[in-house]
Amino acid sequence: MDDSRIIELLFERREEALAEIDQKYGEICHRVAHNILNNTADAEECVNDSYLGVWNSIPPNHPEQLLPYVCRIVRNLAAKRYHKNTAQKRNSLYDVALDELEECLTSPESPADDYLARETGEHINSFLGTLDKESRVIFVRRYWFSDAPEDIAHLVGRSKNYVAVKLSRTRNKLREYLRERGVNI
Amino acid sequence: MTRQMICQAVAGISDEYVAEAAEYKAKSRVSRKTARWLTAAASVLLAFGLGIFSVWFFTPSDMWGASTNALQLTVVRVDDKMASYAFVDMSPYEETVIESCRGELYRRHGDVSFYRIKGANDLARLIFEQDEDLWLIEFDSWIQPMSSERWKTSYWYTGGYFTDEDIAALDADAKITYADTLGIIYGVESAEDIISVKFEDADIDKTDIGDSVKIKAVTLRDSESAQRMYTLLCTLVDRDGNGWNGWVRVFADDEEYKNGTMPLSEQTEREVVVTLASGRKLKFNYSPTSSIIKKYGDGFGAELSEEDNEWLISVAEIDMQYHYYGDAKNNNAGNTAPENNAVTAVPSPAK
Fold first, then answer.
1. Disruptive mutation site among A37, A65, A135, A175 for chain B (greatest number of B CBs within 10 Å)
2. ipTM at complex level
3. Which chain A residues contact residue B99 at CB under 8 A?
4. In what order do the strands lie in the sheet with B194-201?
5. B217 falls in which pLDDT band (50, 70, 90)?
6. Which of A68, A98, A156 sits opposite B18 (nearest CB)?
7. How large is the average pLDDT for residues A21-33?
């Protein structure tokens, strides 16, 4: 079933829309949640909560693309649960991915405000537009989906080493990109 | 910026890019397995259509101690032939120095470029550039020659990798022998480029009986041996696309060993390492009882003439006599005394 039909079902308040979403995007939703939470039961619960979030938000929302919309809800809920649960235990793929980015986004002088985060987010978006598709996919799979490098290697049909090197170079480029634009990190 | 803020910044990645990453499917890359399948298919076609077939797959030197990635291959036009190169898993040091190792441009295909290694006179390794990224690649094998029409249906051509000029430059009727590999890829122009030929333990122990077989390593450094080895290598033609076909191995639990008619393969097989003046080492497996020499690892091999086989047995000082080293079932390895059993002559090498 295509996304527009699923959205129509949601507008008609028909619950089979959620079954369709689960069938179509359940796997990647579970992956996103599990990568962040590193716990199958928590991930399962998070995905179910996300479906409820989709049900409650469509309507009124009418997303142009259903997949990123659903994934984003999953990611937000998983991140919220992660920050609530943890902080002490840093053992998920999400932690490792954040550690890597911390190296290029953190400085002792960073002003701690949401504005900076939003501004940096916008710059990251425009930076991604400068990359070739494969580099961009590798970056997003690593830092948005928190996928492990070996899984990304499998996805893009390259070696783990290739992915690791690509990520390292992309992070360096990002650091330069932000510096050139005067982003105070 | 705190971790939570980093998380927030990354969360702002647009739907477009998230969807792109979620739905991404890799371009089909030609794996070694696929390349072999293609080679085999092309070979069958040629064998039936033209009656011509020869190909060499070859594992290049391990000089830098790195390993190649069998799943990532790229193709490069080398003169009038097409060669397959494997990506090398680079060490952090190699990644650091690769830029400074980039020599002159060798070939450009579409948006990728191939550079020689600075100071190297051969094509064993090249530097591959795409999107300003540099990678080290290593010669893997020759692609079976085929017609322009067939090339135009290939993954590389349809993917915009080659121009019509590249395809037109290929010789569809080329007969590839190991002389091409030696000369074109490794820059070996004569026997003078061969420094030494070493015969050592093939390390094929299947049982601990093999541990008790002592192998004497022999290294040839004289010019006469180098000339003979060079001539031998240049005449090699892949026998059937599978170096193991016809390869006879006798282990301690085989009847031929038990009844004293054939010696253990641990005793007779050798690894042959040819060291070139460039420092590269070419490795082969050699079975005197099978009369076959093949590339190191799995792959392709060539049948030796009776004369060449006898020469190799002689210079490598291979003991072709039957010796009893113990019974695998009784696990009494270590009993190496030949007098425990009658010494019998070994049958002539299998043909």
1. A65
2. 0.78
3. none
4. B218-220, B194-201, B270-276, B281-287, B292-295, B301-303
5. very high
6. A68
7. 88
Query: What is the per-residue pLDDT for B161?
Result: 75
Q: Domain residue spans in chain A?
A: 3-85, 93-180
Distance from CA of B133 to the nearest CA of A (A): 8
pLDDT digits (tens, 9 = 90+) for B176-200: 888 988 999 999 999 999 999 999 9
**pLDDT tens digits, B139-157:** 877 777 888 888 887 767 7
A147/B125 Cα distance (integer angstroms)? 33
pLDDT at residue B90 tops 70? yes
Q: What are the extents of the domains in chain B?
A: 32-185, 191-340
Reply yes or no on whether the pLDDT at B36 is more than 90: no
Mean predicted confidence (pLDDT) in B41-52: 40
Q: What is the fold of A3-85?
A: Rna Polymerase Sigma Factor; Chain: A (1.10.1740)
Task: Measure A14 CA to nearest chain B CA, in Å.
Answer: 25
From chain B, the residues in CB contact with A72 under 8 A are 11, 15, 18
**Sheet strand arrangement including B81-88:** B68-78, B81-88, B133-142, B125-130, B112-117, B102-109
Contacts of B21 in chain A (CB under 8 A): 136-137, 140-141, 144-145
Strand partners, B338: none
Partners of A107 on chain B (C-beta within 8 Å) are 1
| Token pair listed for A182 | 């005067």
Write b or e for each residue in B177-192: b if 16 or more Cβ atoms lie within 10 A of its Cβ, otherwise e.
Answer: bbbbbbbbbbbbeebe
Mean of the pLDDT values across residues B252-278?
Answer: 89
What are the distances in angstroms from CA A28 to CA A32, B19, B22? 6, 11, 8
Among residues 47-86 of chain B, which lie with CB inside 8 Å of chain A? Answer: 69, 71-72
Of B18, B90, B135, the CB nearest to A144: B18
Element (H, E) at B218: strand B218-220
Instruction: Give B26's contacts in chain A (Cβ within 8 Å).
Output: 155-158
Q: What is the pLDDT of residue B32?
A: 41
* A158 Cα to chain B: minimum distance (Å): 7
Per-residue model confidence (pLDDT) at position B87: 79
Contact B293, B301 (CB under 8 A): yes
Reported confidence tier of residue B341, pLDDT bands at 50, 70, 90? very low
Confidence of residue B275 (pLDDT cuts 50, 70, 90): very high
Alpha-carbon gap, residue B56 to A59, rounded angstroms? 63
Residue in B1, B21, B87 closest to A105 by CB: B1
User: CA of A115, closest CA in chain B: separation in Å?
Assistant: 10
pLDDT exceeds cutoff 60 at B137:
yes
Using the Cβ of B9 and the Cβ atoms of chain A, whether some distance falls under 8 Å is answered with: yes
Pick the CATH number of A93-180 from 1.10.10.10, 3.40.50.300, 3.40.50.2000, 2.30.110.10: 1.10.10.10
Q: Which residues of B touch A83 (CB under 8 A)?
A: 4
